[in-house]
Amino acid sequence: MSFDCRRSDVLAAQASPWHTHALQRIAAGPAEPLTPPVQMAWTTRPGQGPGAEILGPDLRGEHLLELGCGPGHNAAHLANRQGAHVTGVDLVGLQVRRARFHYARLNRLGFVADHALHYLYASDEQFDAIYSVFGAVGIVAPELLLPAIAQHLMPGRVLAFSVPHPQREGHSPSGDDRPRRDFVALPDRTRLPIARWEFGTDRWDKHLSRAGFRLTSVQEFHDSRTGRRPTTLLIRARKL
Length: 240
Description:
By secondary structure, the protein is α/β, with parallel strands linked by helices. It has a single domain (5-29, 58-239), classed as Rossmann fold (3-Layer(aba) Sandwich). 28% of the residues lie in helices and 28% in strands. The protein contains 7 helices and 9 strands. It has helices spanning 5-12, 15-28, 73-81, 93-103, 116-122, 142-150, 201-210, and strands at residues 63-67, 85-90, 109-113, 127-133, 153-164, 180-185, 191-196, 213-222, 230-239. Strands 3-2-1-4-5-9-8 form a 7-stranded mixed beta sheet, sandwiched between helices. Strands 6-7 form a two-stranded antiparallel ribbon. The longest helix has 14 residues, at 15-28. Mean pLDDT is 91; it is low at 1-14.
């Protein structure tokens, strides 16, 4: 499997806003041990939407991979409360550092600082489910990332991901396969630009099918605090 170095440079440059985000979080207060959340969160609003059942009815002993784990909350929930073996990968070393401070004491849980594509290309491990919560899916070119994910799932296994809804700002979903300009909201309320693939269901279905997946469910979620527009798109697919 090959990797386009020029594309790698462009995507790796997007670490900068997330690095700044992590720096501001650390400046606001040092990371410390936390209790794993009682529910997995897929949306922008805590307690809204489904939980770990999206990944399977019984995750005990399953090997899961999170692409874009951030500070590790969902991975910790899955390891501690669902009994899964979880690897969390994040592009930003400071985020991985935060995750380790929060949850290093937990069993069946590990965090790796790496680009999602680099990690997938270098690994030969097979996972029972792979997921992304406002993480690498949507930030990394789908024509590269989805086939790489498929290489690490056996037939019938689940890929699930949540992304910002493409209509959250009142725009239509992307009409082509190019990324759009988006912004990362920082803790100090400033915003830094990134590129994001903002597809509707049909275009995600097309890319998933090309990569060897069958789309099995789509859910939209709203946050009444931000208006009537949908805020989150949650997609679940199975490897063919």
